[in-house]
């Protein structure tokens, strides 16, 4: 199954490489509007104070920071062949059933859409917080302990073990390909301030007394560990 997924990603990257030289964020914004993407996704930061009812009424996640969150090659592959990231529908907060709710983008529009979406960044996010070099075995162990023992993040997030087994819950996004999908600096920013990106999050806030109180160093370790996860 991973070989098939890898071939799909390779095909997507070939398309990206062939068309990226002509990609235009301005053209992507026009296609985003023409395709009606704004009917489900907001590209401007919402005002503070969103209620749960307002959150439930939203059809898709906000995209005002998506360029800070995702890697362009992963986004390219996903737009060509979308698939749910969790077992819960965003627009219903109910179990995911049936075909993928997100349509595939027209192949010819993908490079421009990616250029536009990657231009949507959070100006307040710090860059270079999480080291990019491969973590040491000690750092990997520390990250794994934080993820699986300190907070038991796998209760909501699925990942693949070193033995190749899929474990974990489905109420949160899968982290099996977190290293390919997510910018570690954004992971750190989200862990330290989840309500900045999701005004009514289901994610725990790790600064306080309800959950184990993580410091900035532990957040970096956890974000760095997640950056190594890729099937």
Percent strand equals: under 5%
What's the CATH architecture of the largest domain? Orthogonal Bundle
CATH class descriptor name of the largest domain:
Mainly Alpha
Q: Quick one: how many beta strands? A: 4
Secondary-structure content class: mainly alpha
Give, in order, the helices and strands.
HHHHHEEHHEEHHHH
Low-confidence segments, ≥5 residues, pLDDT <50?
none
Per DSSP, the total helix count is: 11
- Calculate the terminal CA-CA distance, rounded to whole Å: 10 Å
Quaternary organization:
single chain
* Topology-level CATH name of the largest domain: Cytochrome Bc1 Complex, Chain D, domain 2
Shape: globular
Major β-sheet strand ordering: 1-2
Q: State mean pLDDT (0 to 100 scale).
A: 83
Could you estimate the helical fraction of the residues in percent?
40-55%
- Biggest sheet: strands, sense, closure? 2 strands, antiparallel
Can you walk me through this structure?
With 231 residues, the protein is mainly alpha-helical. It folds into 2 domains: 2-118, Cytochrome Bc1 Complex, Chain D, domain 2; 137-226, Cytochrome c-like domain (Cytochrome Bc1 Complex, Chain D, domain 2, Orthogonal Bundle), CATH 1.10.760. The chain has helices spanning 2-19, 25-34, 52-57, 66-69, 72-80, 110-118, 137-150, 178-181, 184-192, 194-197, 216-226, and strands at residues 88-89, 94-95, 159-160, 166-167. It has a two-stranded antiparallel ribbon. Strands 3-4 form a two-stranded antiparallel ribbon. A hairpin with a 4-residue loop joins strand 1 (88-89) and strand 2 (94-95). Helix 2 (25-34) crosses helix 6. The longest helix has 18 residues, at 2-19. It is globular and about 50 Å long. The chain starts with a helix and ends in a 5-residue tail after the last helix. 29% of the residues are buried. The model has no long low-confidence stretch (mean pLDDT 83).
């Amino acid at each position: 199954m991973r070989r098939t997924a890898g071939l799909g990603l390779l095909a997507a990257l070939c398309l990206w490489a062939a068309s990226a030289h002509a990609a235009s964020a301005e053209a992507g914004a026009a296609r985003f509007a023409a395709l009606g993407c704004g009917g489900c996704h907001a590209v401007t930061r919402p005002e503070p104070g969103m209620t749960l009812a307002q959150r439930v009424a939203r059809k898709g996640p906000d995209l005002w920071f998506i360029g800070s969150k995702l890697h362009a090659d992963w986004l390219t592959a996903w737009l060509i062949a979308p698939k749910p990231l969790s077992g819960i529908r965003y627009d219903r907060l109910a179990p995911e059933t049936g075909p993928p709710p997100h349509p595939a983008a027209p192949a010819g529009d993908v490079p421009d859409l990616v250029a536009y979406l990657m231009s949507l960044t959070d100006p307040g996010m710090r860059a270079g917080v999480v080291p990019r070099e491969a973590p040491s075995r000690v750092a990997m162990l520390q990250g794994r302990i934080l993820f699986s023992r300190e907070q038991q993040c796998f209760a909501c997030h699925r990942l693949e073990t070193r033995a190749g087994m899929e474990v974990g819950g489905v109420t949160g996004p899968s982290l099996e390909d977190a290293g390919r999908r997510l910018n570690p600096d954004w992971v750190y920013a989200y862990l330290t301030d989840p309500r900045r990106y999701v005004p009514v999050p289901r994610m725990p806030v790790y600064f306080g007394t309800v959950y184990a109180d993580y410091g900035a160093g532990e957040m970096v370790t956890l974000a760095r560990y997640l950056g190594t996860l890729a099937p």
